[in-house]
Amino acid sequence: MRTSRHLLPANNSHSHPTTTPIITKNFLLAFTGHFCIGMAFWPYVLLPLFLGNLGYDSFMIGVLMGTASLSGVLIRPWIGISLDRRGRKPFLIGAAALFVGVNLGYILVDEAGPLIYGIRLMHGLSVGPLFAAIMTFAADIIPEKRRTEGFAYFGIAGHLSGSISVMLGEWMIWFGGFPALFISGAVMSSIAVIFFAMITEPEFKGIEGSSQHLWGIVKDQRFVVLWIVSLAFSLGLSSYFIFLKPFAETVGLTNVSFFFTTYSSVAVLIRIFGARLPQRLGEKIVLSTSFGCLAAGVLMIVHLPTTWGLMLTGMLCGIGHGYGFPILSSIIIEDADAETRGSVVTFYTLLFDVGFLIGAPLWGLLVDIGGYNVMFLAATVVIVGGILLVLQRQ
User: Which of 148, 127, 139 is nearest to 343 (CA)?
Assistant: First the structure.
């Protein structure tokens, strides 16, 4: 009979959730590795400029950006089962090492052609399993009763790296071209491999008959609404992650780091000082409000084409991401069974690849047809749809 793995409880004694520490050696090692990966990952919001320089139009830029998501989607079912059976650490190390090679591979691209498609596919094959493993490992080591708070703290690594790396990325492109950006990404990914290698994975054991097919997870009534909300969330994110830089270029704003630095800084502050707010006010209230901020930010991008406008919309979108992702993560993981946690988290992260896979060419097509006003308006409508589902969920 096929077997899968689940975590053994660290202690069978009475639990004390209010005093169980979140910050442990494993947490700090994973946090630092996550930060290093973020330093390599975030600057790829600037890649559409690189693709535009190769001669691709908005639609084809969207297709190429979505290519990475395609490979990430295709590999996810296997990753989810493997995380539950083989553990998280092998995937943390292996996927981060592959991302080193991917960053270096971009240096070889100097013209439009099949090579960039191959590199983008490998990009998805590395970051897809990597973020699934990071999220699952975080769920393993964060105390169950403090999961929303713990995910908020853990997510600081991703947003802190975003507040730094996009600004540094624009500076590196300015002085050393895109090769300098790609080399720095390879260096940071290499450092992440070292930190992931030092983590100690919680003990696992196999249990009979616990594997759950992907389709079973997809149609599980506990998650269906959450899957749709997560997809709407990712579609909204993809609109500005992919097309903010091209839009900014059309209105003479060459430095989009004002948006992403504000965006990430606000998300970091939220997770430091507001991590317990969802527990106090209720996750539903905070989640719907944060999505409202995200919708407002996306809608206002085209109407405030100034540096201050970038900062304001970055703040609003940062509030949406800063609360939205950890709350959704916590709700989904709390509803998941321990032995299928890897599969559930993998499908959750898969939806963000699906959102980018669909959103990248869709938003690019809308830009070509109706301009950035139409595209960002459509993205706002999708986010509002997610808000309505959140409000209706019991």
Answer: 139
Between CA 356 and CA 350 the distance in angstroms is 10
Strand residues in 321-381 grouped as ranges (E): none
DSSP letter assigned to residue 10: S
Q: Percent of the chain at pLDDT above 90?
A: 36
pLDDT of residue 336: 67
Closest listed residue to residue 321, CA positions, set 296, 276, 357, 291? 291
Q: What is the mean pLDDT of residues 58-69?
A: 85
In a domain, 376, yes or no: yes
Q: Residue 160 maps to which CATH number?
A: 1.20.1250.20
Residues 131, 7, 347: CA angle, nearest 5 degrees:
35
Residue 188 structural domain:
22-204+213-392
pLDDT digits (tens, 9 = 90+) for 29-49: 999 999 999 999 989 988 988
pTM of this structure:
0.73
Q: Structurally, how many domains does the chain consist of?
A: 1
Helix axes 156-197, 147-154, angle to 10 degrees: 80
Burial class (CB in 10 A: 0-12, 13-18, 19+), 393: middle
Q: For residue 181, is it within any domain?
A: yes
| Element containing residue 5 per DSSP (H, E) | strand 3-7
Q: Evaluate whether residue 16 is within a structural domain.
A: no
Pair 287, 320: CB distance under 8 Å:
no
Tell me the CB-side half-sphere exposure of residue 351, using CA atoms within 13 A.
Answer: 26
Q: Of 5 and 240, which is predicted with more confidence?
A: 240
Residue 143 belongs to some domain of the structure? yes
* DSSP state at residue 88: S
- Across the chain, the runs of DSSP E, i.e. the strands, are 3-7, 204-208
Q: Indicate the average pLDDT of the chain.
A: 84
Segment (H or E) for 268: helix 257-273
Residue-wise pLDDT tens digits, 291-318: 999 999 999 999 998 999 999 999 999 9
Q: How confident is the model at residue 11 (pLDDT cuts 50, 70, 90)?
A: very low
**Integer angstrom CA distances of residue 255 from 144, 186, 201:** 41, 23, 41
| Buried b or exposed e, range 355-386, using 16+ CB within 10 angstroms | bbbbbbbbbbebbeeeebeebbebbbebbbbb
Contact 341, 210 (CB under 8 A): no
**How far is 137 from 204, CA to CA, in rounded Å?**
12
Which DSSP category does 222 fall into?
T
